[in-house]
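hey can u check if this looks right to u? its 291 residues, i copy pasted from the old doc so theres a chance i mangled smth
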Amino acid sequence: MIASDHSSGPRSFSTTPAVVPAPVSIEDALRNGWLEIWYQPKIDLKRKCLAGAEALARIRHPHDGLLLPENFLPHLDDENLAKLTEHALLTALRDWDSFAEAGFSLHLAINVPASALAKTPIAALVTQNRPRSESWPGLILEVTEDQIVRNISLAKEHAGELKACGVTLSIDDFGAGYSSFSSLRHLPFAEIKLDTSFVKACAIDATNAAICQTAIDLAHRFGSVAVAEGVEHMTDLQALVVMGCDFGQGVMVAPPMPKDPFLELLRQRTNVPHAQGQPVSPMPVAADRVA
């Protein structure tokens, strides 16, 4: 994920630096191998199984420890954001092959700034580096609502070529910006991600519940799906299921984690052997929590 993610709450992996670090150069991070891509599961709330995962950027600095996006993204210009986007894109495509070899066909998503749609040859990179397996479900690019509305013509310009190579658009942090529905209806997007500020306490806060329900209904009217991000409490998850929300992610289900622990989690949940085998059914994830 190229924007700050919403992985608050208890975690299996320590992500909080002891001190506020100095700005880190993306060039240094890439050159020294400090940049990591972690994954947070996304679950299908209706089928109660794993639907995919969102890729999240981390920097493991030798002195400052593990840095979250808010520690390095605010200092990046468009050129460096493009470099980070390309790295996340190529890593997600390579990792998909690793997951597939272990028997998991996952729908992966990365968060990109709108500027990267113009500065990064995303369609060409995907065409050249995409998995060749027939089971590859494509890639999702998440762009925040405020950015996509400000750059609606740019998004429309690139949406066609992206779709042709298996890439679809997602409107991230929906409800937090100032979207123009008249503009969005002309943009082909695959999903709307409900902003975590409205997902939080949606089971007891009438205003948040109304906003979530409206966003879910809007997504369905557009022929898309609704994804709730930042789910931290079982009551909120249950409320979202009742509202008809399609997918959810958050620390209540699973925190972000590096590739290898994520793959190990999948194997544990499905009892898939470590050797390459036949594709398996989707992994049940926290089924008891969404029943």
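The domain at 26-268 is CATH 3.20.20.450 (TIM Barrel).
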